[in-house]
Design goal:
The protein is an alpha+beta fold and 122 residues long. The protein has 3 helices and 5 strands. Strands 1-5-4-3-2 form a 5-stranded mixed β-sheet. The chain is globular and about 45 Å long. It starts with a strand and ends in a 7-residue tail after the last helix.
């Protein structure tokens, strides 16, 4: 059974993960798009080298083309939903803490908007 993959959308209509993907060069965008399809088809069974759990239910999709490394962060939500939060070009060995915290903040925002509470469950 497939998962539903969606982009987090801010109040102003901005979709950070989608905008990040559109900013990538053609090869990287194609590779990341293929990995998103793998995520849709495999969900929480997707593992390295394509996906890795970072912290507290926050995962990253991993793509590399040549020496360029891109990441898109995501989390699992209710009823087989996967929400892509945002993306970034990785420049250090370890995923920057601020990127993980940004994704966690999006989880909190969605919990309040969709469920009406400030506690999130993943």
């Amino acid at each position: 059974m497939r998962f539903e993959v969606e982009f987090y959308e801010k109040d102003d209509g901005e979709q950070p993960a989608k905008e990040f993907l559109l900013s990538l060069d053609k090869k990287m965008r194609a590779k990341m798009s293929d990995i998103i399809v793998l995520l849709r088809d495999n969900g929480n069974a997707l593992r390295l080298p394509y996906s890795e759990c970072l912290d507290d239910g926050i995962f990253e999709l991993r793509a590399k083309v040549g020496s360029d490394i891109s990441r898109v962060l995501y989390f699992f939500y209710i009823d087989r939903q996967i929400i892509l939060t945002h993306g970034f070009i990785k420049k250090t060995q370890k995923t920057p803490r601020r990127e993980i915290e940004k994704a966690k903040n999006i989880v909190r925002i969605i919990s309040v908007e969709r469920r009406g509470d400030d506690e999130y469950q993943i």
